[in-house]
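Work through this protein:
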Amino acid sequence: MSTENMGMLKPKGGRLDYFNYAKFAIGGTGFTLANVMVNAYLTFFCTDIFGVSPIAVAGLLLVSRIIDAITDPIMGLIADHTKTRWGKYRPYLIVGAPILGVIVYLLFSAPNLTANQKVIFLYIVYIAYSLAFTMVTIPHQALVPIIGKDTIARSILVSWKNVSVQIGRMIITTFALPLVEIMGGGTEGWGRFGAVVGVGVTMCYWCAAWGAKKYDIVDCAAKKQKVNLKSEFQLVTKNTPLIRLMIAYGTDTIANTVILAINIYYFKYVMDRMDLVPITAFALTATGIISNLALPLLNAKFGKKQLYLVSTACCMIPLAALLLKPVMPATILVILITVFGLISTLTNGLSWAMLPDCVDYAQHITGTRGNAVVSATFSFMTKCAGAIGGFLTSFLLSITGFVANQEQAPVVLTAIVVLRFGVPILGYIASLLSMWSYELTDAKCAEIRKELNQN
């Protein structure tokens, strides 16, 4: 380990505030309870439980996510210029969390409606979900550079937040189906489970707001600065590292969204092993927790960029093996998926660890601090990518002739396999190409922070 990287293991400016870091990180569980619940099960719930056609679901995901993505930069701009006695970003967590929780329940409530009414209901509630999700997640992410003042603090914050994310993922992907059955199964079970998830989302984000209380402080008496749209716009347009990171994470998001959305179809219709869904989900999240706990040490040893490139390249190996042989013994299947989870979690965590560096870089080149604007723009790309991934899944199922709850034609099974393993490989290749020229090395980031601290 180099002297420079060894220095990264020591905090700057005093002791690390582990207790508040942990409280803030719990917001990651709230994020995932909502996000994975929707990405992993909404398409399946709509087609196999609520009785909505795949093509209608595809249109819903695409249209609502595009609307949602447009609102992200607006939310970032609003949050960055908010001044209250509760802080700049915390009020949105406090107020928005219960709203998001209620809407998560409504998404899985399955009211007794006609076919057309079901589609209208889903459009209204899903768009509302997207707006509430934006209202909470953008300010939450914007708090990372405020709470973490240096590389080690930020690495710990992001690492712990991502461990919290994996816990939320484990709860949903491992226990959702069994708990839905325990709660009554069918529409009744899904509605009850959705209500429990909604309460969990609310409590987690309130805990995050509690953890950020001592850091999110604003001078309400200070003169409010006018919004300079040109300056805010340049936070992104002149930020080449951010653009590269957004492209890379966007293609990763397409890959991961497709994996989440098609996963249950793969086990139900290709493998005919629904019992493997919670087993593989547990393996993925358990290894994800391990990866995120190791992230600060790996980052200090290898640097973010090099670790990102290596982990992204390695993600494709187990996917390629499963693409070539999608039906294989359960033990080998679980091992390959576990290996994928161990590696891919590093890539995901590194993206969020790099984002605060892009915030610093934006201030370095423009003189303007825009935590939420940069985070919102990153979220904008992520949600656009998520919309593409969700639409692609539902659209290909529809045009290949998928019909719920019956034996599928060979072309449908092929489409499911390609979506589950082939499309993610393409996403990771695109990510590698984008990040190859990423210029913010750890040494460069340290120089930028030193200069900013002197001003």
